[in-house]
Amino acid sequence: MSAFSYDAFAAGWWPYVFILLAGWLPTDVWRWLGVASAGRFDETSTSLAIARTIATSLVAAVIARLVLYPSGSLAEIPTFVRVSALVLGFATYYWLGRQTLLAILVAEIVLLGTPWAMAISG
User: Fold this and answer.
1) Tens digit of each residue's pLDDT (9 = 90 or more) over 73-82
2) Which 8-state DSSP code applies to residue 69?
3) Contact, 107 vs 117, CB < 8 A?
């Protein structure tokens, strides 16, 4: 066993230090670098448009993965309900003037309400 493995220390504080060093620090460094350099970028530049496109694509891929190939409790909800929640949430977002909180609320109501209504009716 190496000196810096997760199981190297029996102290109760070690898991928190491990989370700090392995989880928070590597990602937070990039966030702070982004904040520090954000004022230097031209918002109309091609490189920033590419970065924004990649970030949006990654978010869309994660959402598609959660809807089409879920795990855990989400897998118990039928696919048509998950897709309906996505479509109605997206439609609400655009119809109500890009209100993110309302779109999330509508999608949650569909996700939680449909299986409940199906259980009561049948």
Assistant:
1) 889 888 999 9
2) S
3) no
* Look-up of token digits 């700090």: 20
- E-assigned strand segments in the chain: none
Q: Which amino acid is at 82?
A: R
Q: pLDDT tens, 46-80?
A: 988 998 999 999 999 999 999 999 999 889 888 99
Query: What are the tokens at 115?
Result: 């299986």
Nearest alpha carbon to residue 106 among 117, 95, 119: 95
Under 8 Å between Cβ of 90 and 65? no
* 0.70 exceeded by pTM: no
Tell me the CB-side half-sphere exposure of residue 22, using CA atoms within 13 A. 9
- Name the CA dihedral angle for 51, 29, 101, 108, rounded to a multiple of 10 degrees: 100
